[in-house]
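Ticket 4471: requesting a sanity check on a complex prediction with tryptophan. Repro inputs:
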Amino acid sequence: MTDQPTQPIKKRTFSGIQPTGNLHIGNYLGALKNWVDEQEKYDNIFCIVDLHAITVPQDPQELYRHVREVAMLYLACGISLEHCAVFVQSHISAHSELAWLLNCVTPMGWLERMTQFKDKSAKQESVGTGLFDYPVLMAADIILYDAHYVPVGEDQKQHVELTRDIVLRFNNLYGETFVVPEVLIPKAGARVMGLDDPTSKMSKSSDKVGHSLRLLDPPNVLKKSIMRATTDSLNNVAFDRENQPGVTNLLGIYQAITRRSEEDILNEFTGKGYGHLKKTVAEAVIATLEPIQQRYYDMAKDPATIDQILKENADRIRPIAEHRLLAAQQNLGLRK
Ligand code: TRP
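Returned structure tokens:
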């Protein structure tokens, strides 16, 4: 016996990012930065969800390049492999297999209610079954690893709630099989809006110049986009989403980077012009992204190492997923 307190077992988190390229400062400040700041508290799994990406058409020549890009950005932003596994969804076939089993207990009506499906399908001429089924695959991702927490943005909350409903139904029909996960919405961290249109969220898919601040944009591009950001003619620096969305967006970015209070930030800018605000925000953004870009381009020199990391991480966690899949197969009567 020792009188050393035993290490509490950390709860598991699971989250995913689609490898569609163009990760931007909204993804960083709204998600990645929080994951990095909180990573020591949990046992984390971060998945690059390539099977989700193909629910809408992707260029096969680009897809794996984007997978690697996301992996390198995760690491460059400070995700530590000591606390986190980073792997590619399609490398663990249990995701697809469990998704099928869950399909068979998920009523179509539940999926028809998903707002993201309604939005995304409205934009496609031909809607694949995969797009409709997307939340079921997401449920499989989460519950294969007994994740307690799912750190995501507000827009994914409905999918995590659906996951809970699927788990409750499965457990109820076939016996306790899966952990019921909870969504974890970051307290700090900004909802970053488009610089050209501060009333809609910054988007990965927009390629309009001056819309987003991509994590890999060179400093002069970052600066230019911020200097030409839409503001207003009130000439008053205030946090006021409704009447001054552009100025508020810039202040929000600055606040998320500096983690300072609103009051403190207003003290810095009151009485100064928008030009000064933009210049200060640009400097802060560049100072944040430059070291990330440096680490990214260092890693990019050696893609074989990234591929190796992704393989090792998948190999390490695959047994967890296979164990839970087998339990589901047994409870359904597919296996003895
Ligand atoms: N649907 C998520 C998004 O677009 C990505 C995702 C896939 C995910 N599987 C997940 C997030 C599991 C959290 C947990 O942002």
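Notes from triage: The CA atoms of residues 8 and 41 lie 10 Å apart. Leaving this open until the requester confirms.
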